[in-house]
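Quiz preparation item.
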């Protein structure tokens, strides 16, 4: 105890310097930070939804739409498998209903050939089961039934894809530090701090943005009624109320091949300029070359944006979508197309908005609670332990600096429960010092010298401190792993606080006491 190793002094000094330097940016405005050199720390703790205000949305991926899309894809796969050039297999009534794709063979003798053709549609999953079960009865009826595991896997993939697309759309709006995470099997939690136009965000997240290009079926009635020829469908106009178009089912070009989309102007009107990738450019060029003079429908989420006539082949892979947009509408459509189409619609299950005034009140309440907690603990420690209590208060202050520094470096989002975790940590931070000081008192009562008493106090309290903090840390870790949102924020600040409080109690306090004792050489200790 008489000598505190040099390497420990260096480590403690560096850690404390880290805490102070990386906490300071939180004490100045962002405008001030922007004017500082790049090599200086400029990261600040991000404020969560409950502190900054904003929007909270709980979205649900439409599982029925995912399953329907899966069945449609399976129907297309069956049709392609049975229609091979030069050797078609006769069938009728190909459809899907109640989670099963079925059709009937015209010639039951084709059973083995059908099994061979359809084998490519049934794959072995990681669990060893087939994702599609194929069966044929004596009457030649063929059924294909996707397994529950395959449906769950498709839904899980759709949720993962939806999260990524939601993240892209939110990022395009410029929201700082959004929280987008999965909840359960088919839900997505979206928290957007600082959002002042939640309706626009809901519109952007609610649009599937599935863009396709189809030929208009000129043989059908273009009004709102009339028969639709086989292989075509009637879709309403996006901008012209009461008008509809009959378009052919075949997708000539898909929005999946879009490379970029930007809002611009053409003849003084807002439009969306789009550009395809290499494959999309070839498909678009071929479609426009083969259908000059015909109307080409641009379809967004089963609504016809417009159906311009193809005057000449478009071979450059670039096109313009017009349809009576205003500037904001063109910008939002371009954003949706850039971010990509959702695999299924998203339904809003829960929506909450937090005003900035409420967030400011929460911050003020947190600051008051923190100040009261710090002052109360500091006064108690000084009253109970005198000079050693002052040293414990210095360690407490450094503990708070370290918590804020780590949160800043990690880019963590501070929420109201997170503030509660910090306030809780303030009380826990001196707990280790209390254990050490009480042990030192006991050692002094046995007649040990001040140096030996301090040495024994730190060494014998060490195991108890470790045990107490490890058990609390385990609970905080479980909260972090199992919890979400505010619970996770509380767990993060608590975990950081536990680690930093152990460092300040065991290392910083011990170093300060060691320096004082080497300088004063006390004959007795009043503690």
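Solution:
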């Amino acid at each position: 105890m008489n000598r505190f190793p040099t390497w420990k002094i260096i480590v403690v000094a560096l850690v404390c310097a880290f805490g102070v330097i990386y906490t300071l940016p939180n004490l100045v405005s962002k405008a001030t930070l922007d004017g500082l050199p790049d090599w200086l720390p400029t990261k600040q703790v991000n404020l969560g939804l409950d502190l900054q205000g904003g929007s909270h949305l709980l979205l649900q991926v439409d599982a029925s739409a995912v399953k329907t899309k899966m069945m449609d894809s399976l129907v297309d796969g069956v049709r392609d498998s049975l229609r091979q050039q030069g050797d078609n297999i006769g069938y009728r009534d190909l459809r899907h209903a109640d989670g099963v794709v079925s059709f009937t063979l015209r010639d039951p003798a084709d059973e083995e050939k059908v099994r061979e053709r359809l084998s490519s549609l049934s794959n072995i999953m990681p669990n060893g089961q087939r994702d599609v079960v194929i069966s044929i009865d004596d009457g030649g009826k063929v059924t294909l039934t996707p397994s529950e595991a395959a449906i769950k896997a498709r839904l899980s993939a759709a949720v993962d894809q939806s999260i990524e697309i939601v993240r892209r759309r939110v990022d395009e709006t410029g929201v700082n530090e959004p929280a987008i995470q999965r909840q359960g099997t088919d839900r997505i939690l979206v928290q957007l701090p600082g959002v002042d136009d939640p309706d626009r965000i809901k519109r952007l997240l609610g649009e599937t943005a599935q863009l396709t290009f189809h030929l208009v079926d000129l043989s059908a009635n273009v009004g709102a009624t009339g028969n639709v020829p086989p292989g075509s469908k009637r879709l309403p106009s996006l901008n012209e109320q009461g008008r509809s178009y009959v378009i052919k089912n075949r997708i000539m070009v898909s929005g999946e091949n879009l490379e970029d989309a930007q809002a611009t102007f053409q003849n003084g009107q807002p439009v969306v300029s789009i550009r395809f990738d290499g494959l999309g450019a070839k498909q678009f060029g071929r479609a426009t070359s083969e259908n000059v003079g015909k109307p080409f429908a641009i379809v967004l989420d089963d609504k016809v944006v417009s159906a311009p006539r193809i005057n000449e082949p478009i071979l450059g892979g670039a096109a313009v979508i017009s349809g009576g947009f205003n500037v904001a509408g063109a910008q939002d459509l371009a954003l949706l197309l850039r971010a990509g189409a959702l695999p299924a619609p998203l339904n809003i299950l829960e929506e909450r908005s937090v005003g900035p005034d409420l967030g400011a009140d929460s911050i003020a309440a947190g600051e008051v609670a923190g100040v009261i907690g710090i002052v109360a603990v500091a006064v108690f420690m000084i009253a109970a332990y005198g000079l050693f209590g002052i040293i414990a208060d210095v360690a407490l202050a450094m503990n708070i600096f370290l918590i804020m520094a780590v949160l800043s470096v990690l880019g963590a989002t501070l929420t109201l429960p997170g503030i509660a975790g910090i306030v809780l940590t303030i009380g826990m931070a001196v707990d280790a010092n209390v254990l050490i000081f009480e042990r030192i008192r006991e050692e002094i009562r046995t007649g040990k010298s001040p140096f030996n008493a301090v040495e024994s106090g730190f060494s014998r309290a060490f195991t108890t401190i470790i045990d107490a903090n490890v058990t609390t840390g385990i609970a905080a870790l479980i909260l972090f792993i199992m919890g979400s949102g505010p619970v996770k924020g509380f767990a993060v600040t608590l975990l950081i606080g536990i680690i930093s409080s152990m460092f300040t109690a065991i290392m910083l306090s011990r170093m300060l006491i060691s320096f004082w004792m080497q300088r004063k050489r006390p004959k007795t200790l009043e503690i």
